[in-house]
Amino acid sequence: MPEKDQAGNGEAEEYASIWQRLERPAKPPRTTLTHEQIAATAVAIADEEGLDAVSMRRLAERLGVATMGLYRYVRGKDDVIELMVDAIYGEEGMPETAPDWRATLRGAAWGLRGLILRHPWLVQVTASSGPLTPNLVARTDRLLASLESLDLDADTRMVVVTTVASFVSGTVGADVGLDRLMRREGVARMDDLRALYASRMMWLLGSGRYPAFENYIRQGVRKDESEWRFELGLECVLDGIAARLGI
Amino acid sequence: MPEKDQAGNGEAEEYASIWQRLERPAKPPRTTLTHEQIAATAVAIADEEGLDAVSMRRLAERLGVATMGLYRYVRGKDDVIELMVDAIYGEEGMPETAPDWRATLRGAAWGLRGLILRHPWLVQVTASSGPLTPNLVARTDRLLASLESLDLDADTRMVVVTTVASFVSGTVGADVGLDRLMRREGVARMDDLRALYASRMMWLLGSGRYPAFENYIRQGVRKDESEWRFELGLECVLDGIAARLGI
DNA sequence: CGTCATCTGTGTACATCGTATCCGGACTTG
DNA sequence: CAAGTCCGGATACGATGTACACAGATGACG
């Protein structure tokens, strides 16, 4: 039981996470800002102008507050990002529990995909924020719960959940990377991007060093159908879970 | 054939990627720097002190060059990052082609895992760099080639490759996030991190809102065996590919 | 009801970042 | 040897995250 040894001392108070700090209900908060406002505004900025546009100054300005005023609510920019992540994970309801595990995981996967597409900056940030924001734990909890009736041990259940989540974030992350590239180059449609990149693609492939890749460029006809690719990959992953774990 | 229409004009020269630019063999480079040096040094800094430590000033200093001197070789920091990514993708040989596709993909997956663990900053950067660096294309090409004898169309082959790669980067990305958290908190062993986080974990779970997650915390006994988790997840993914695609 | 301690929000200041611009000097080329 | 090209350097600017000190308002307490 490693979760109850040397801990619980008051000294841990200093190092408490945001979530811990903002739930202490004492101390009458006669505040003009709320953490929800901060999170929502930061998310709005990131959605509209990208994650780089979320600076403490811009955030404070948009909230009608001096820059340093934010630091009363937040320990630093990392906290802001953690609030943002948690906010969007909580924006839509929890993944609904379907009768069978497969439908539940599938629904959660498509839901996560939508979430990332709506907030593309999530992929830039997912590596730097702690994995313990409340809404993220809640989602994980729901998915774990949907597997509890199966004959799997706790470790395996977690692997199932993280495997699906990893597939989703990786796949959608690639799509998002393309979107960002398009935005940076100022093109709107995928074909325009291809036209713009045609020269360097020709250069790369013209060498004949990458024959299999070249085959894909020439023969692939669903390069733009990201939903099709996502669905095929996802069903593979789900099939694999069912096959290997015998469920 | 979208890769040969309106392109090839000279005006594209201006927008050429770094890779294109540095392959023009003319112009006797009487240079004191090489792109390999720049990439290797930047990688070294990132490996030792993290990606944030890679600034143009530090990089130039370590190369014994004035800051702005770098801009003769590189259009900006984004180029440096692209060079870094390509450098590490090329550091070890290409994934070796095993007799059967499954062994090939498995080897590539474990190889990519090792690569990311050796250069953890890759996960912070993978979203922002273009997907067209030569060594990355080369790797993809090898994997696509290993699937060519199978009865799959080009689109499906690519889905197979990206599905495996997505699983790997997502799963290892989570591990790396934990590592970074440990480094930031200044602890060396996983148990120490757990001790440090025990309080906020207790707080999070004590509410009883996340029973399934709590079950995992209590019953999971392989939380530290990231290789075990990786292997199980990977075999699930491979099983799924075999099952769904009938190979 | 007055006094004081405490918390809130503001302004200033600093180190560091990426990079635009200009310049001197060394090299290749005729 | 002359001329032109291009490397490397120095300076400068705007923007960033945040440490610090201070003004004002609010609550508790006599």
Characterise this structure.
2 copies of one chain form a homodimer. In chain A, 62% of the residues lie in helices and 0% in strands. Chain A has 247 residues and is an all-alpha fold. Chain A folds into 2 domains: 10-89, Arc Repressor Mutant, subunit A; 101-245, Tetracycline Repressor, domain 2. At the A-B interface, helix 7, helix 8, helix 9, helix 10 and helix 11 of A face helix 7, helix 8, helix 9, helix 10 and helix 11 of B. Chain B binds a DNA duplex (30 and 30 nucleotides) through loops.
Summarize this structure as a short list of keywords or feature phrases.
homodimer; about 250 residues; mainly alpha; Arc Repressor Mutant, subunit A; Tetracycline Repressor, domain 2; 2 domains; 11 helices; flat; disordered N terminus; DNA-binding; DNA-binding (chains A, B); Homeodomain-like_sf (chains A, B); Repressor_TetR_C (chains A, B); transcription regulation (chains A, B); Tet_transcr_reg_TetR-rel_C_sf (chains A, B)
Short summary of the structure?
With 247 residues, chain A is mainly α.
Overall outline of chain A: flat
Q: Approximately how much helix is present in the residues of chain A?
A: 55-70%
CATH architecture annotation of the largest domain in chain A: Orthogonal Bundle
Low-confidence stretches of chain A: 1-13, 25-30
Biggest sheet character of chain A: none
- The proportion of residues in beta strands of chain A is under 5%
Number-wise, the strands of chain A total 0
Note the quaternary state here.
Answer: homodimer
The total of helices of chain A stands at 11
Biggest interface found: A-B, 97 and 96 residues
| Terminus-to-terminus distance of chain A | 30 Å
